[in-house]
User: Fold this.
Amino acid sequence: MKDAQLREIEIAARALTRGRLVVFPTETVYGLGANALSPAAVEKIYQAKGRPADNPLIVHIAHPDQLKDVARVVFEEAYALFASFSPGPLTVVLPAAPNLAPQVSAGLATVAVRIPSHPVAHRLLSVAGIPVAAPSANRSGEPSPTTVEMSRQSLGERVSIFLDGGPCQIGVESTVVLVEPGRALLLRPGAITADQIQAALPNAVVTAAETEQRLKSSPGTRHRHYRPAARVILFDPSQADEAAESPVFRLPEGVSRERFGVIRSVGFNQAQLVPSTIEAECRFFRSSEEYARELYRWFVEFDAYGCTTIVAELPRPLGIGVAVRDRLFRAAGD
Ligand code: TXA
Ligand code: MG
Assistant:
């Protein structure tokens, strides 16, 4: 890291300890951070995002040693998960310590904790030396930012300190898992898969939360999320009569044909997918990893191009494809 960037991080770390907001990069998406021990600081996050007060925040720490500062009990299962996947895109939900600002947990008795691996995030958290509450750095309901420009565009003047760490490597939010002795419940799919969690906890029962359970244990998942302004229509190639069939031709009646955003796997070109009479922006992905990395940026680009409808292909439900499908279903309103 260059000296200038280290200095910037130090200034941002000091701002955090004094109760100010800081936008910082992580390997998943950009975060909007505040001192998790200060109710006044955490309140600013809800204000800046326009976030519903019942949607709890993830607390970010630099090192597993800090777990006991934020969690009342740290189950063995949590240590095992952090040992396997941290620093990295994993969030573990545990009973909350009493010293955290109450807004962090939004009325729950638990706290979500994560140790990000991005070098800028890591440096910021270790210099600040406090746990940092941080949701994604966007206005509530908008797609999560994967570049600092996207975050600036979404939050504007509401925040004055933005740390630039380049485009995020993963692009979708962390896997969220609630742990209890002998049990792990997956609340949000991410880059760390259910199979990986099961492999790290061979003696625990690992389940993916069904919608109802998810609503109860993770209130955030009931709010509108991950939405571009355009309507999103999903295209499932495994359901199509033939793989090459254009999704644009299969639109339901009554959809305006003004301007389309189209996301498909490589192997197609725009001329094959979209008749020349229709205006469209096309994006192609080579892998689910690339799809995850680009998804939110493509959504924002489509909105900027004035697309009124986005037709997005569902990737296969393998690896990070599970997380991409989850975000696409939410964007489409399912
Ligand atoms: O990758 C990420 O996790 C990013 C980066 C910035 O770390 N953060 C992020 O935060 O996505 P946010 O606020 O957009 O999403 C937090 C998710 C929500 O679904 C929320 O309901 C859930 O975590 N959550 C937070 N605290 C919880 C708790 N105590 N119990 C259950 N779910 C919780
Ligand atoms: Mg978010």
